[in-house]
Write a structure and sequence with these properties.
heterodimer; A: alpha/beta; 6-stranded mixed sheet; 4-stranded antiparallel sheet; elongated; disordered N terminus; B: mainly alpha; 11 helices
Chain lengths: 334, 251
């Protein structure tokens, strides 16, 4: 076990300098080297819900696949539930659960058949496997559809079965890759409740997401990853406090005025940072309600060209925007 | 590992039996050949290179090799589907042995291949095939080995490509020349010299020759042991290749 030096409680996942490099053929004998994950460090404590937040293609899934023994790291060290990633892959597989983006539900079988097979593959006897399937069907309220072919399930039903399959062997550590991708709001809320209950029962949950509300509401701690690098880490509250103050978003008639306005505000001491995004000027200030009048005075004539004023408490998106100069939301439509 | 293999084999077989239409589709082509092509050969009886009677005994063994080649050679499509739904990945993260994952699929494929072989053989017997029973049993064993080899090859390719479209074109590009250069449809004794030399490099021409000898009840010929040696070596090699592809699948 690797210990957390401050508290002397072992981390359930501990990684140092984990990286993955691919060589991609580009034709004509030309090869390009793609660094999907560039030497990340992770320390995940027992019984926390840890979120890996980042846009698509940031390296979240690659990092996760290394930790679950599906991908060999190019370099770096890690222990998972106390086992060494390089030497003890088999032991790791026994003690982790994993729900992939695709899910992994066998659509040619019913929920009950899926669960019984999964339990047997983890070494349970037929009786124990049946018993465990019954428990999970009750727990995740799958009774209505457990005897139907998984082909007929709705997105939410399918996701419940995916989760149940990951939990069959009661793993102390569960990995979820984009668990609520494409789910309707009600199914998402239901899914979040289940994850929280799992944690209350003593499990540690590691999930990736590109939804900042998911990271914000569900996760105890978040690492923000972008282009293979962790750019920020902490509780959602800490990360947002780092931004401090508020953000004011100004919309303008035209880009010309936006640029001159930004320039005019550049020297104002109360503006911590300004960014242009979607043709709007984002200003990060200490106290929005006091600073807005000052902004109006500074802009003076140009303020006539302001078409919209939005006022917002910082979100994780603002954290991401400040750390990377891009918005998470930009990537959602991709 | 054996228990995991049996569990997964049962799952795969159940899945295959749930869509029986594919089993019928697999049988459709060989049955058409029996009904619509074999009568033409009968008319050619006695032509140079062809026996005067019992043309079935030349044609049916070749047809069975072709059936095995194509049925087992396209099983990779099934794993592409299981890959897409994340089923393969789920197994890979579980303590399931890699060899159990692969062998359970191959075991299911062999059940399907043998069932088809038995149906086609039965139909051929009705249509006038006369064969040596023990020879047929030995021939069936060789076909099972051919099935292992082709299924492993198909899985190795399927686990390496990301696109089902690629899989079909790769399979067709490989199988058509194998088919034409093996004397499956007509004996290679009819072929010009250069074609016969080319066929010498095709393992399937040895397999087809050996099958014909076995169906006739000839056991002593060196061709038979050569064919067994070739097919065993290739089955071992392709199985090893497929296992290593499975290990590296997500890399």
């Amino acid at each position: 076990m690797v210990s957390n030096p401050q508290m002397n409680i072992p981390d359930i996942v501990h990684a140092r300098g984990l990286s993955k490099t691919y060589t991609v053929r580009q034709g004509r004998g030309q090869n390009a080297v793609v660094e999907a994950v560039k030497g990340i460090d992770l320390s995940i404590e027992v019984k926390e819900i840890f979120g890996f937040l980042g846009p698509n293609g940031a390296g979240k899934t690659t990092a996760l696949k290394m930790l679950i023994t599906l991908l060999a790291p190019t370099s770096g060290q890690a222990t998972v539930v106390g086992f060494d990633l390089h030497r003890q892959a088999k032991q790791i597989r026994r003690v982790i659960g994993y729900v992939s983006q695709a899910g992994g539900t066998d659509t040619s079988a019913t929920a009950r058949e899926n669960l019984i097979l999964q339990a047997q593959l983890y070494g349970m006897t037929t009786d124990a496997a049946r018993q465990r399937a019954r428990e999970l069907i009750d727990q995740l309220q799958m009774g209505d559809f457990a005897e139907r072919s998984a082909m007929t399930y709705s997105g939410g039903q399918r996701r419940r079965l995916d989760l149940a399959l990951g939990m069959v062997h009661k793993p102390p550590l569960l990995f979820l890759d984009e668990p609520t991708l494409g789910l309707d709001p009600q199914s998402r809320a239901h899914f979040w409740d289940e994850i929280q209950r799992l944690r209350e029962e003593g499990a540690t949950v590691f999930l990736t997401t590109h939804y900042m509300d998911e990271a914000d509401k569900l996760c105890d701690r978040v690492s923000i990853i972008d282009r293979g690098v962790i750019v920020a880490e902490g509780t959602p509250g800490e990360l947002k406090r780092e931004i401090k103050g508020d953000s004011i978003v100004l919309g303008f008639d035209n880009d010309q005025v936006l640029s001159t306005s930004r320039l005019a505000l550049a020297d104002e001491p109360y503006i911590r940072e300004s960014l242009v995004k979607d043709g709007k000027l984002h200003l990060y200030v200490e106290r929005g309600e006091q600073d807005l009048p000052a902004i109006m005075r500074t802009l003076d004539d140009q303020f006539a060209a302001v078409t919209t004023v939005e006022f917002a408490r910082p979100s994780l998106d603002d954290v991401f925007l400040q750390k990377t100069g891009r918005s998470l939301r930009d990537n959602e439509s991709e | 590992m054996v228990q995991q293999l049996v569990l997964l084999f049962a799952r795969h077989l159940k899945k295959s039996l749930r869509s029986p239409v594919w089993i019928l589709v697999g049988l459709f082509e060989p049955v058409l050949y029996l009904l619509l092509f074999m009568p033409l050969l009968k008319g050619l009886g006695g032509a140079p290179g062809l026996p005067t009677g019992g043309i079935e005994r030349t044609f049916v063994p070749g047809l069975l090799v072709m059936l095995t080649l194509f049925t087992a050679g396209f099983v990779g499509f099934g794993v592409v589907d299981d890959k897409r739904i994340g089923f393969v990945e789920r197994l890979m993260v579980s303590p399931t042995r890699r060899s159990a994952i692969l062998l359970s699929m191959i075991a299911r494929d062999l059940v399907m291949v043998v069932a088809q072989i038995l149906v086609v053989t039965l139909l051929s017997l009705i249509l006038g095939l006369s064969m040596h029973f023990l020879g047929f049993c030995a021939g069936l064993l060789m076909l099972v080995l051919v099935g292992v080899m082709m299924a492993s090859f198909s899985y190795a390719v399927a686990l390496s490509v990301t696109d089902e479209g690629n899989l079909a074109s790769i399979a067709n590009t490989v199988y058509m020349p194998i088919l034409l250069l093996s004397g499956i449809m007509l004996p290679l004794t009819l072929a010009p010299r250069w074609l016969r030399i080319a066929a010498k490099f095709n393992p399937f021409s040895y397999i087809v020759d050996a099958e014909r000898l076995l169906f006739a009840g000839t056991f002593g010929n060196a061709e038979i042991w050569q064919a067994f040696a070739i097919v065993i070596a290739l089955a071992v090699a392709t199985t090893a290749l497929a296992t290593s592809r499975l290990r590296k699948m997500s890399a």
